Amino acid sequence: MPCPRGKFSFPGWNECRSWLNCSQIALQVHATRRFHHGITKRVWHANWNGYQVVFINCSEKDAVKREQCSRGMHNMEKLQGKFVTRLIGSCPEKLQIVTMYYKHGTLRFLDNLFRSRRHRLYKYDNIQTRFQLTVEYVKVLDYLHSSPIGVRVMCDSPYLDKLLDQYLITDDFHVVVNDVDGLEEVTEEGGCHKWQNVSFSSKGQLTKELAERLGWPNESEPLPFHLRPVFDEKIDIWKIPWVVEKLLGKVKGSSFAKNELRKIMEKCHAINPQQRPTANEVLQELLRVQQLIVDHRYET
């Protein structure tokens, strides 16, 4: 059930409980196996009172990385809602949080999910399901670009696989943003001021691949090493066509959907960021095409 900020519930509950505090996390949350060891934090599959949860612990001593973890916790709390991973508890003093566990994993491994015999989801590998996930992804962007804490842009995902890993598929096949450490507020100065793993040629020029992925207008334009591109939320729009291509795959009806979306996808790749559509404009076009898919009644 929907819960106000500061509370949580699990599927099947008819009540909301307050977020777990530091002592409750220490006594009641038991890690079972490690999922992931990232740059700034460790992520564990855990158990809380018989429920599967995710326990995240930022154990970094480096002040900059601890600040990044703290920012991620703040973002997670302030953005709580149906488009964000559900928060179960937090301990700011120890930089620990507990979140809902979603068994389907990230958008990056959608193809593997459909092929997995474990979940027996192969019968859902069709244009209807894939297009709905695409709609869900853009709904999340639309929410982040008009969030309660300002316009937010994803600054920690310059490459497709990295980007798709930021989003989880819920058990009932919705999409939520999960890793929010890299969300930056868009101000008059821009949004993403610093990019990790930015590669330049020996002459200090952006490589062609990076220019294409980041939307830099001219890949041959010299860029001094001490400078970095500054991007607002329109860099999220630039990435939408690659996400659409990945999520729709090659199932029956995908060619029809991609053809219908061709014009809006071309607009997403406008060199001038101001000429790119908003996330909501892309969403409205997706909803139009989704209705066409329903009318065509594509079979799997």
Give an overview in words.
With 300 residues, the chain is an alpha+beta fold. The chain has two domains: 94 residues, Phosphorylase Kinase, domain 1; 154 residues, Transferase(Phosphotransferase), domain 1 (Orthogonal Bundle), CATH 1.10.510.10. Helices cover 35% and strands 16% of the residues. The protein is built from ten helices and eleven strands. It has a five-stranded antiparallel β-sheet with strand order 3-4-5-7-6, sandwiched between helices. Strand 9 and strand 10 form a beta hairpin. Helix 4 packs antiparallel against helix 7 and helix 4 packs antiparallel against helix 10. The protein starts with 6 loop residues before the first strand and ends with a helix.
Q: What's this entry about, in short?
A:
This protein is of the alpha+beta class and 300 residues long. The chain contains 10 helices and 11 strands.
What spatial order of strands do you see in the largest sheet? 3-4-5-7-6
What is the number of beta strands?
11
Assigned CATH superfamily of the largest domain: Transferase(Phosphotransferase) domain 1
Total number of distinct structural domains: 2
Low-confidence regions: 195-206, 215-228
What is the helix tally? Answer: 10
Which class best fits the helix and strand makeup? alpha+beta
Overall body shape = globular
Q: Give the CATH topology of the largest domain.
A: Transferase(Phosphotransferase), domain 1
Rg (C-alpha, Å): 20 Å
Estimate what percentage of residues fall within beta strands.
15-25%
Write down the CATH class of the largest domain.
Answer: Mainly Alpha
Tell me the helix content.
25-40%
**Major beta-sheet overview:** 5 strands, antiparallel
> What's the CATH architecture name of the largest domain?
Orthogonal Bundle
Mean pLDDT across the residues is 84
What is the terminal separation in angstroms? 32 Å
- Please write the string of helix (H) and strand (E) elements: EEHEEEHEEHHEHEEEHHHHH
